[in-house]
Amino acid sequence: MPDTSRPGAVRWLAGHLPTPIRRPLGRLRRAIRRRSPPGAHEAPGRIDAAEAAAHSWQPPDPAVAGPAPSRLETRREFVFRSSDPGSRILEIGPAHNAILPKRDGFDTKVVDYLDRAGLVEKYREFRQYSPADIEDVDYVLPAGASMSDVIDERFQLVLASHVLEHTTSLIAFLNDCARLLAPRGVVSLVVPDHRYCFDRFRERSSIARVIDMALAPPGVHTVGTLTDFSLNAVSHRGTTSWAPGHRGNYKFVHDMDAVKANAAR
Q1: Is 181 exposed, middle or buried (0-12, 13-18, 19+ CB in 10 A)?
Q2: pTM greater than 0.85
């Protein structure tokens, strides 16, 4: 048993408690940290503006009347149930829709397959997206490369929002994320519900496919995968994502000529 007056002793003790006790204590500790003044749990010293902004983030209080939380607030609230707002963060492929952007004071690095100029060009035709929402990309991932081969830093939080479903190998992607973690780090995933988006009528991946893709991950998606997507993608009342409870008919996004053209490409 260590001397509990020494730094790190409480963390050591918590790590050796039984899981049914440790998890509730961890949740309590994170809740206290979120509601404490900036720097309350740090050694005395200067806290810069970015760190102070990140530590000042507070989850929506359900007891306080007001408008419903935004989608961004909801995602942040879930992410910070298992991580600290002041963490060293890697956000994977946020493009124009970052959850923890640098501009909001988070200590975030960004990895994507294009640099910022490339992303601005990619989304130029989509008038609903502002180029100002696209942040600088710290790590540009070459085609076929693993993130852990390109990134030499390690992070307390690795965050991927609406990325998992685009990967060629579920297991390879998760293993790559895990290699980027600092000790006791967290991988946090925001994953769409396929019932309420264009994948509504696609079959869920079988365990056989998950295993096969892990053993021999393809460099790009297969012709079969692309054809399956093209054949089954739908819109609902004019949009490719919708809220639960919407009623009405679905419409295929691609006609058969487009399906064949995608497969050939």
Answers
A1: middle
A2: no
Q: Where are the beta strands (DSSP E) in 78-228?
A: 89-92, 108-112, 139-140, 155-161, 181-190
Is 66:89 a contact under the CB 8 Å cutoff? no
- What pLDDT digit, counting tens, does each position of 35-71 carry? 544 444 443 344 454 455 555 566 666 666 567 788 8
H/E element, 236: strand 234-236
Q: Token pair for residue 21?
A: 């006790």
Q: How many CA atoms lie within 13 A of 177 on its CB side?
A: 25
Dist. CA 7–CA 5, nearest whole Å: 7
State both tokens at 143: 């085609």
- CA end-to-end distance (rounded Å), the chain: 63
Distance CA 240, CA 109 (A): 30
Instruction: In whole angstroms, give the CA distance from residue 164 to residue 4.
Output: 41
pLDDT tens profile 85-143: 999 999 999 999 999 999 999 999 999 999 999 999 999 988 888 999 999 999 999 98
Q: Report d(CA 70, CA 76) in Å as an integer.
A: 10
